């Protein structure tokens, strides 16, 4: 009641209490909103923009006593050294290889799973299956790595026992470079496929039931209805997620890789970001490693923009 | 009519296959979880030999006993609780007011702030400049190095902004303002009480993230007494195991002759996984609704 009364009052005296005309007045009236946004503003300024300024050390020889601004410029030397290093193509291949492998396996599975969940009648089994498949999302990356190592350990791991139980020779998952990418990708699917269905299920819940009813009357099978009604419904969501994934092809989640890396699988597990960590923070080659990191960021940004551009030309579902 | 019956039969087969498929997916996810619980209370010999593959065998609570006796784990637990509580409080204090301000159409400069925040999604200075910054700010080896560099996530700000935009009626704000209510009072007394779902979602998202994170602690903390649980876990689960791996291939005979120390270590591993993960997994089914809601609000914009 009180609010209605006030709203009516407000309409009557729009000039004094409504929206002020001039920009200055609007800013002054909402001065508190600037207070609200200040912490976030300073956070992004200091912890995101300041490092962008600091990335200039990629073109310098960083001398700690002289600081970032005071260190001498050397141009593209660090980039040159990186591009001509013997490990350059290995790093590129591992980074791209893991990302593309992950995309090829990890992208379709949540979609298929969401379509399958959607066909199951709401009830105990559906709730159980959803709760359980979502749960691994909450397992930390350290625990995940610990699980992988325990399950795949030669002679004691349960996966090894299961494979040997089938009479097959079990490979050395943890140390054989050929298995690293598979181990990485499939453990990721185990952990996140269930959680990944949520966004698709949200889209599927918006399907007009009338479409399905009409299709049933026309004699469409369940499969046909999924194929011609549900799948097209998911296309916009799929496109947006695909763009985002493509944009991070060079930004492979390195926290897990770092934990699973060992000297024996290095040739297949070393990616740009783990290399940056090792050369920068472990070996303290700040400038060189900042250069490699910058190269990585630039490629990421270019990929994201390029993929978005391609999608924008061919469909309506681009990010911007 | 006959064609109609044939089609329902085909549908029945399809539906049956679908149930089998979902059941298999369920089993694949469920089995490792059950296995870990069983392994944590089983005789390590049975676990290592593969005799224990589903239900516990030779039940022992030795693993948990060792975990509870281990002071590093307790210190880590304490640190993690501290970092998670302080970190999540900071996350919310930065995220919610900013998201509310940006949800207001009459906020001059909202597009500027949005653009400024969004740029950070596409481009970042990278690991080394951030590390040098934290060092320069004198945060090294303090709790603040773990908490402050991840004080806000642009994604969560967007999700909260979308919530405020769609669930707080504009009329409410206008009416309150005409009654002489300041923005501060409006936010604290009217908007926040109406926004419990998004506060819960954000607290849970940030909270789980803080509980599970290890990398910033790894690079910024040197003092083992300040390590969060995840770093202690890394020592127990990853480093120890990897050292054994790096020492060369273990053939079956040496594995069979494994001393009891290694067996206890293996047992402790499963127990510690359970102890570290239970707080998150246990609260999750009760709060699943909120987590799911978060993804949904995010997808409206997405």
Quick rundown:
The complex is a heterodimer of chains A (320) and B (302). Chain A is built from 18 helices and no strands.
Residue windows where pLDDT falls under 50 for at least 5 positions of chain A: 1-17
Tally of strands of chain B: 0
| Whole-number mean pLDDT of chain A | 87
SS element count, helices of chain B: 15
CATH topology of chain A: MetI-like fold
Q: What is the distance, rounded to the nearest whole angstrom, between the alpha carbons of the first and last residues of chain B?
A: 45 Å
Mean pLDDT of chain B comes to 85
CATH architectural type of chain A: Orthogonal Bundle
Element order, helices and strands of chain B?
HHHHHHHHHHHHHHH
Largest interface: A-B, 110 and 115 residues
Which CATH C-level class of chain B is it? Answer: Mainly Alpha
Judged by helices, strands and strand pairing, the structural class of chain A is: mainly alpha
Strand content of chain B: under 5%
Q: Count the domains of chain A.
A: 1
CATH homology-level superfamily of chain B: MetI-like
CATH homolog superfamily of chain A:
MetI-like
Oligomer description: heterodimer
How would a crystallographer describe the biggest sheet of chain B? none
């Amino acid at each position: 009641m009180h609010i209605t009364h006030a709203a009516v009052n407000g309409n009557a005296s729009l000039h004094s209490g409504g929206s002020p005309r001039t920009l200055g007045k609007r800013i002054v009236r909402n001065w508190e909103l600037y207070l609200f946004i200040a912490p976030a503003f300073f956070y992004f300024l200091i912890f995101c923009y300041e490092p962008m300024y600091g990335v200039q050390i990629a073109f310098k020889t960083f001398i700690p006593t002289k600081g970032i601004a005071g260190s001498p410029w050397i141009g593209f030397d660090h980039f040159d050294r990186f591009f001509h290093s013997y490990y350059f193509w290995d790093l590129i291949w591992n980074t791209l290889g893991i990302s593309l492998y992950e995309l090829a396996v990890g992208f379709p599975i949540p979609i298929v799973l969401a379509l399958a969940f959607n066909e199951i009648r709401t009830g105990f089994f559906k709730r159980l299956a959803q709760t359980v498949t979502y749960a691994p999302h909450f397992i930390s990356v350290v625990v995940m790595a610990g699980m992988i190592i325990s399950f795949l350990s030669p002679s004691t791991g349960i996966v090894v026992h299961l494979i040997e139980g089938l009479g097959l020779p079990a490979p050395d998952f943890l140390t054989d470079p050929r298995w690293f990418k598979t181990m990485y990708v499939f453990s990721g699917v185990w952990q996140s496929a269930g959680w990944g269905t949520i966004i698709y299920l949200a889209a599927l819940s918006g399907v007009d039931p009338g479409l399905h009813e009409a299709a049933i009357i026309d004699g469409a099978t369940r499969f046909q209805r999924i194929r011609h009604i549900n799948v097209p419904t998911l296309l916009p969501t799929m496109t947006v997620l695909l763009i985002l994934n493509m944009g991070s092809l060079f930004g492979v989640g390195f926290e897990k890789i770092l934990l699973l890396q060992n000297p024996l699988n290095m040739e297949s597990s070393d990616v740009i970001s783990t290399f940056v960590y090792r050369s920068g923070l472990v070996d303290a080659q700040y400038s060189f490693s900042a250069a490699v990191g910058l190269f990585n960021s630039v490629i990421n940004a270019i990929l994201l923009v390029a993929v978005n551009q391609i999608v924008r030309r061919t469909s309506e579902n681009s990010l911007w | 009519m006959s064609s109609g019956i044939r089609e329902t039969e085909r549908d029945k087969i399809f539906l049956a296959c679908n149930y089998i498929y979902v059941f298999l997916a369920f089993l694949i996810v469920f089995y490792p979880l059950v296995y870990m619980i069983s392994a944590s209370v089983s005789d390590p010999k049975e676990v290592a030999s593969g005799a224990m593959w589903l239900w516990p065998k030779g039940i022992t609570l030795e693993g948990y006993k060792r975990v509870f006796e281990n002071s590093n784990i307790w210190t880590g637990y304490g640190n993690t609780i501290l970092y998670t509580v302080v970190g999540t409080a900071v996350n919310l204090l930065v995220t919610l007011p900013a998201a509310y301000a940006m949800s207001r159409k009459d906020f001059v400069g909202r597009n500027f702030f949005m653009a400024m925040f969004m740029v950070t999604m596409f481009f970042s200075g990278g690991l080394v400049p951030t590390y040098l910054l934290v060092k320069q700010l004198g945060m090294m080896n303090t709790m603040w190095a773990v908490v402050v560099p991840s004080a806000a996530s642009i994604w969560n700000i967007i999700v909260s902004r979308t919530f405020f935009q769609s669930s707080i009626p504009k009329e409410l704000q206008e009416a309150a303002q005409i009654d002489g209510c300041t923005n501060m009072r409006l936010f604290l007394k009217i908007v926040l009480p109406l926004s419990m779902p998004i506060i819960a979602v954000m607290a849970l998202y940030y909270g789980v993230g803080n509980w599970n994170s290890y990398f910033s602690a790894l690079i910024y903390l040197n003092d083992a007494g300040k390590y969060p649980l995840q770093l202690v876990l890394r020592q127990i689960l990853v480093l120890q195991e990897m050292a054994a791996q790096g020492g060369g291939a273990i053939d079956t005979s040496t594995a069979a002759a494994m001393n009891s120390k290694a067996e206890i270590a293996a047992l402790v591993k499963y127990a510690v996984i359970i102890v570290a993960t239970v707080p998150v997994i246990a609260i999750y089914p009760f709060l699943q609704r909120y987590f799911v809601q978060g993804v949904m609000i995010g997808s409206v914009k997405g």
